[in-house]
Inverse folding.
């Protein structure tokens, strides 16, 4: 039924039954270093599409084929006490808040707790955690998997670091069938290319 | 979740400005076909993945009440009409039955992925204001080349389709009539939407997708289902012309007679047949 509902909404959108705040999309060309949601710069190895709508301030959403098929999110500079996403049910389902004192493993747990609430019952599992660097700062790289409400199994990876008491995080997820493997190589190169300009 | 989604849809359908009724409810009818795509020549076998058919009644308030009996009847009519339609086109349908084990999981995974890919095409190709710049001139969505594993089920193509019908109840129709008479705006009665898509299992590419948000044909009847299937199959890729050459055969062009060619068709012969003829 969830799939039916999603399809229904997509069809309603397609039919012009509603005019919600639809995202506009801008081309992000491969090979060009680009400023992302603040002061971090990355260089993509493939063309992407950037949404003109930001999920939260200092964030950006990129996709190649549609967010359900490849979703690359940038959260650049989450402040102390702020959640990863905007809280839609603050009382009923509050999201965990970022704390600059977190260790890299705490970031992984914080992300997992957030995902469990946002995905609402989907089986979200961390599959790998390892130390990594983001924009020259010590951080963490972790992998995860879950099955969405569309019954599609997805895999994802996150690179994150706390820089000047703020959290910088790049996350990518895509269906395990075909899409994850097709994109993850380029995404890892993009994560490696991240740098801060002061 | 179900109630929430239903409510969203009902709200979408109800709170539409009266002045734009035609524009809002003219419905979307759009087909995307991979440029220049044709089915391969010769016998075509198409796998049909569990068709999603839902039939119900739209209550006075605009909510949908599923009707199991109508759904079952409609499904049978649609399958019969689909088979007839494809026989007429010279292709053979192979119904994918409930599989167990690894193949069962594969079918479920690809069916789910198809739905997600189709949603992306709807959102980012068919809704022009939401188009992705990288897709502006391309229709290149795919399930990936590993979809070829599904060919083991006995087909070269995968056909997926979905229909949703919510027939306006008497109460709903009365509200619609009253709203028109009393100037209360346009209140839609009934929802009839559907899509169908074809995947080339050699490549995994989605080669055709047809979406219609205001479908015709009462699929609770055989005639209505035929009309619906004909709509769903609009602009279905045609078969390429050509001669199928079975494996192990040799083709050769016969020498032209002095007056020029007498037949455009190449001669096809198996090595044995060629030997017999000499």
């Amino acid at each position: 039924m969830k799939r039916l509902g999603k399809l229904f909404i997509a069809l309603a959108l397609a039919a012009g039954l509603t005019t919600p705040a639809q995202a506009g999309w801008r081309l992000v060309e491969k090979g060009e270093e680009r400023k992302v949601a603040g002061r971090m710069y990355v260089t993509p190895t493939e063309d992407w599409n950037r949404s003109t709508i930001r999920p939260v301030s200092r964030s950006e959403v990129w996709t190649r084929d549609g967010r359900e098929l490849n979703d690359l999110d940038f959260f650049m500079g989450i402040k102390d006490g702020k959640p990863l996403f905007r809280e839609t049910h603050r009382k009923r389902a509050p999201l965990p808040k970022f704390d600059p004192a977190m260790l890299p493993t705490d970031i992984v747990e914080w992300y997992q707790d957030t995902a469990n609430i946002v995905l609402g019952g989907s089986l979200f599992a961390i599959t790998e955690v390892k130390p990594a660097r983001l924009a020259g700062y010590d951080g963490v790289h972790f992998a995860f998997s879950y099955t969405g409400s569309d019954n599609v199994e997805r895999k994802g990876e996150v690179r994150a670091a706390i820089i000047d008491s703020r959290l910088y995080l790049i996350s990518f997820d895509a269906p395990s069938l075909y899409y994850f493997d097709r994109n993850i190589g380029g995404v890892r190169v993009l994560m490696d290319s991240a740098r801060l300009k002061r | 979740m179900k109630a929430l989604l239903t409510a969203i849809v009902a709200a979408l359908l109800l709170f539409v400005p009266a002045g734009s009724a035609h524009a809002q409810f003219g419905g979307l009818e759009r087909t995307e076909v991979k440029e220049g795509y044709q089915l391969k020549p010769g016998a075509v076998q198409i796998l049909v993945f569990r068709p999603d058919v839902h039939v119900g009644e739209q209550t006075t308030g605009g909510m949908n009440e599923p009707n199991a009996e109508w759904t079952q009847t409609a499904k049978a009519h649609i399958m019969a009409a689909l088979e007839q339609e494809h026989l007429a086109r010279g292709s053979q349908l192979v119904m994918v039955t409930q599989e167990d084990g690894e193949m069962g999981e594969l079918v479920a995974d690809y069916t789910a992925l198809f739905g997600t890919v189709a949603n992306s095409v709807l959102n980012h190709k068919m809704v022009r204001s939401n188009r992705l710049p990288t897709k502006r001139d391309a229709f290149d969505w795919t399930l990936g080349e590993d979809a070829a594993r599904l060919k083991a089920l006995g087909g070269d193509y995968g056909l997926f389709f979905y229909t949703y019908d919510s027939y306006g109840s008497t109460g709903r129709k009365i509200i619609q009539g009253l709203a028109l008479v009393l100037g209360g705006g346009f209140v839609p009665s009934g929802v009839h939407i559907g899509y169908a898509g074809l995947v080339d299992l050699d490549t995994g590419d989605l080669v055709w997708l047809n979406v219609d948000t205001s479908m015709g044909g009462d699929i609770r009847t055989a005639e209505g289902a035929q009309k619906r299937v004909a709509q769903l199959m609009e602009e279905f890729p045609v078969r390429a012309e050509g001669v199928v050459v079975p494996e192990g055969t040799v083709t050769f062009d016969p020498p032209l007679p002095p007056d020029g060619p007498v037949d455009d068709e190449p001669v096809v012969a198996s090595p044995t047949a060629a030997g017999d003829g000499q």
User: Anything to note?
Assistant: The longest strand of chain A covers residues 137-147. Residues 1-21 of chain A have pLDDT under 50 and may be disordered.
